[in-house]
Write a structure and sequence with these properties.
homodimer, about 425 residues, alpha/beta, Aldehyde Dehydrogenase, Chain A, domain 1, Aldehyde Dehydrogenase, Chain A, domain 2, 2 domains, 7-stranded parallel β-sheet, 4-stranded parallel β-sheet, 15 helices, about 45% helix
Chain lengths: ~425, ~425
């Protein structure tokens, strides 16, 4: 036990050392490392798939479910996607070193902020081995060192992918320990990782709510995270109802399992009699189960009666809660009471309603006339995404390269003194 | 005990409620509240000084030291400064609602970030009652609710100042509980405040290192803070030595007690024989005790031998540690090893040296040709300062109104759907 914790601390110590070198890495070195990684993924397909096969077979013996097997499997298609992702990240502008907010003070000194890496980033994830490459690439591009801890069921795959990453780092003259894959399946390794504040600057967990909840209770290192994506679409009294049907249908059915999927639909009472039967027909035809308030049931007899449990739940599946409200304020109050601060949307053609909703709803993303399933860093133009944050401090909403950096103040003078 | 914790939780619950109203407060309301507070401070001087007198007398009976009595005392001068501060904050631009990074995506949807309040801010401070007004004003201006917990020795003063704040809030139609002063001297109240993550979004501690260290060990709510200001000035081989003397002297002697005071002076060996005797003469004449490495002692016989303890110490007094180094890299390595990530400066006329130092030193502020005592929000042009942060996430360096806000994503479309 002590030995394992010492091993994790040694990983932390090396990561901190590597972070100092990564802070100084040039854009050209980082791009080279990413391209070499892409080339190696391509040339080492057979080795990678063999390592992955060991994980997949072990998972089959343990009778893990098909969804997990699907996430665990490295196919040619998933390897191609990783290669494409690496090339895209290599081509993105380097966020490090950018100077902003430059101004000259009355005494002639120049004050500015410089974008710099965060330092050491710990990523904790579950069964998808491609996260090893995606996370390594984003941390590398933003000049950080990374410690990766994937699911134990993907250990052989992750170690093989980790070798590809090492290869890229070394080819570019960067420290191999800038990206380290924790090679023990022992769960106590995670406990060590999330508490060693001297070596780790931030933890980004990717996984289910129960994992993240447990981690946040134990962590001493700050986390960039979200727990729930209990997202709402509010159909306003002044909505274009044809647009409202498209938006609500897309928000629910684009993909049931994404965190931006709509889980509760709120409808102004003035439009409910027209809108609700129409959207209900479309959703029921698509296999979505409806659970609504009494007023919903009056208009849609197929809907079950919703309970408080329904307002609180992120279904991540083909179920939708529906509530008819008297006013927009009641919709906002419902979101305040039950929402998770992730993503909410109003459908309205009334500019004042739109402004008020967007100002008053206290979520990391607030939309007008768009489905909540747009909650994604690529859709926002970030070029890449390491996760979505509902934190209030630092990065909020989809987190791209910029969220993996911080600002330091840089001042220049010519001998001005104070006082 | 339970009752006290319930009382603090009730304060938290009310603050959360008030934060929702504050988020919607107009700039005019916030300015009005600040001006009414300033007027009330002016008209209620006698009442405030009487309340303060109770605290001062109690402190005298407990034989608290003169420095503390000085910080505790509300004079006409300190009341005038609070009034001036309130008027200045009232006149500053409102940070809330600002839209940045607006762009149109290929599908026509508009993506932007809106600056919004953080929510509920807990401020924990020591004996200075003026912090009650300064902190309340900054939280109010940035649209947050505040919970204030000052030193128990200043309780009567803080409660009297809290009434002035309430008066301003109510006059502007804002909730009285947007700023609450904790009225129990019980230390367990602090423990409750820093752990109730459901009601408090961030804690800003202002005080000595031991207080802040203890708080960070127990806190579950994120903190914006710094522990040490162990600041370094490095005199480069290419320094203008006359400028270097002015900068080093000012960095040490401007005020010994500020967190930006220089605590260690690093000197390139090539300039040490010329520079070191001169700065040593000036500092010794000013009553500063010098502690140096062996090479320092060879040039300045009065210097005591410095130990590792000296490199690690933030003296906050008339003592300076001095080390002669062979290269700039050695200076940077010393800062990495012993520094606190607060503020460091290089004196050099060589642009490449300046760039390298500014890029490689991993502190919240890095200067060229300026004394470290400029570490202050007013000097940076922030208009006000709630504290200085050495955190890597969120606000780093001097924290003004912007550090008390966060960004949310706001998207507008016209019915675009995904997939």
């Amino acid at each position: 036990m002590t030995t394992m914790i010492e091993a994790i601390q040694q990983i932390g110590r090396e990561a901190r050392q590597a972070a100092r070198a990564m802070m100084r890495a040039t854009s050209a070195q980082k791009a080279q490392a990413l391209h070499v990684m892409a080339d190696a993924l391509s040339s080492q397909r057979a080795t990678l798939k063999a390592a992955n096969q060991r994980d997949v077979e072990a998972a089959k013996i343990r009778s893990l479910d098909n969804a997990l097997l699907d996430r665990l499997t490295l196919s040619d298609r998933s390897i191609d996607l990783m290669i494409e992702g690496l090339r895209q990240i290599a081509a993105m502008p380097d966020p490090v070193g950018e100077l902003t907010a430059t101004k000259i003070r009355p005494n002639g000194m120049q004050v500015a902020q410089m974008r710099v890496p965060l330092g050491v980033i710990g990523i904790i994830y579950e069964s998808r081995p491609n996260v090893t490459i995606d996370a390594a690439a984003l941390c590398l591009k933003s000049g950080n060192a990374a410690i990766l801890r994937g699911g134990s069921e993907a250990l052989h795959s992750n170690l093989a992918l980790g070798k590809v990453v090492s290869h890229g780092l070394m080819a570019a003259g960067l420290p191999e320990s800038a990206v380290q894959v924790i090679d023990t399946p022992d769960r106590a390794a995670v406990g060590a990782l999330i508490t060693m504040t001297e070596f780790v600057d931030v933890i980004i967990p990717r996984g289910g709510k129960s994992l993240i909840k447990r981690l946040s209770e134990e962590a001493r290192v700050p986390m960039i995270k979200h727990l729930d994506g209990n997202c709402h679409v509010y159909i306003d009294e002044f909505a274009d109802l044809s647009m409202a049907v498209d938006i609500a249908f897309n928000a629910k059915t684009y993909r049931y399992g994404v965190c931006g999927a709509m889980e509760t639909l709120l409808i102004h009472q003035a439009v409910a009699p027209t809108f609700l039967p129409e959207i209900a027909r479309a959703l029921i035809a698509h296999g979505v189960e409806l659970r609504g308030c009494a007023r919903t049931q009056a208009l849609v007899p197929q809907a079950l009666l919703a309970t408080d449990e329904d307002w609180a739940t992120e279904y991540l599946g083909p179920i939708l809660a529906i509530r008819v409200v008297d006013t927009m304020s009641e919709a906002i109050a419902h979101i305040e009471r039950w929402g998770s601060g992730h993503t909410e949307s109003i459908v309205t053609s009334h500019i004042i309603q739109a402004q008020q909703f967007q100002r008053e709803v206290d979520s990391s993303s607030v939309y007008v006339n768009l489905p909540t399933c747009f909650a994604d860093g690529f859709e926002y133009g970030l070029g890449a995404e390491i996760g979505i944050s509902t934190n209030r401090l630092h990065a909020r909403g989809p987190v791209g390269l910029e969220g993996l950096t911080t600002l330091k103040w840089v001042l220049q003078g010519h001998g001005q003194t104070r006082g």
